[in-house]
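User: Hi! I have a protein structure encoded as tokens and I'd like to know what sequence might fold into it. I'm fairly new to this, so please keep things simple.
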């Protein structure tokens, strides 16, 4: 297992000497373990270059004693704090394609099972099972739309927010009480967008769902697979 931080070249990126000195983005939800069960059933300690990369997680949005908790897993798309601190902004890169992703040249950007940890199967790289269901472009399009809704919802300096605050002040806060019943704000539109994606035929056919970013406190965009 390698990283673009310490390897001269990657199938995703070529890092020159100047870039190596700069911080590179990676999916900070991931972690690696060296003690795991091989696919042949043997539990043992492995070398660092054979560490499993934990890329999918328990579905914390369901009760721990429910069938959905035991049958579903989630892949977390992280925030990009380097892109914006003014509003939640998420990575539009498929896990495994980030500049500092852990790479395994044997896997060729495919999720390749290598071992079992905590009752689940993982590979050696940052590529997650999500790559079996979404292409890089499909994920990028979805996350770009999510980011756009959030940008519009959190931008306080827009003409709409300035006018809204002025009218609300002049009407002694009555305006906002009317506004939320008459007009959709971008964050409400984001919820509608999530429902639309989840109800689409491609997502239904793949048993795939987006969990509303609101449920994670806008800390991640989570994809759930049954």
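Assistant: Happy to help. Inverse folding works backwards from shape to sequence: for each of the 226 positions I chose a residue that suits the local structure. Here it is:
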């Amino acid at each position: 297992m390698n990283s673009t931080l310490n390897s001269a070249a990657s199938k995703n990126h070529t890092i020159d000497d100047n870039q190596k000195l700069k911080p590179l983005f990676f999916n900070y939800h991931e972690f690696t373990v060296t003690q795991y069960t091989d696919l042949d059933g043997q539990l043992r300690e492995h070398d660092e270059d054979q560490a499993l990369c934990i890329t999918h997680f328990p579905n914390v949005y369901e009760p721990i004693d429910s069938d959905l908790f035991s049958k579903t897993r989630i892949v977390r798309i992280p925030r990009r704090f380097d892109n914006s601190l003014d509003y939640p902004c998420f990575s539009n890169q498929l896990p495994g394609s980030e500049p500092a992703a852990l790479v395994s040249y044997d896997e060729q950007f495919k999720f390749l099972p290598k071992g079992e940890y905590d009752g689940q199967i993982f590979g050696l790289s940052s590529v997650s099972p999500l790559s079996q269901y979404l292409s890089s472009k499909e994920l990028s399009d979805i996350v770009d739309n999510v980011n756009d809704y959030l940008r519009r919802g959190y931008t306080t300096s827009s003409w709409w927010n300035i006018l809204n605050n002025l009218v609300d002040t002049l009407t002694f806060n009555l305006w906002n009480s009317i506004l939320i019943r008459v007009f959709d704000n971008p964050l409400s539109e984001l919820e509608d967008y999530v429902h639309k994606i989840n109800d689409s035929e491609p997502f239904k056919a793949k048993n795939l769902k987006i969990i509303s970013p609101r449920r994670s406190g806008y800390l991640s965009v989570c994809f759930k697979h049954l």
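A useful reference point when you look it over: Residues 2-225 form one domain. Feel free to ask if any position seems puzzling.
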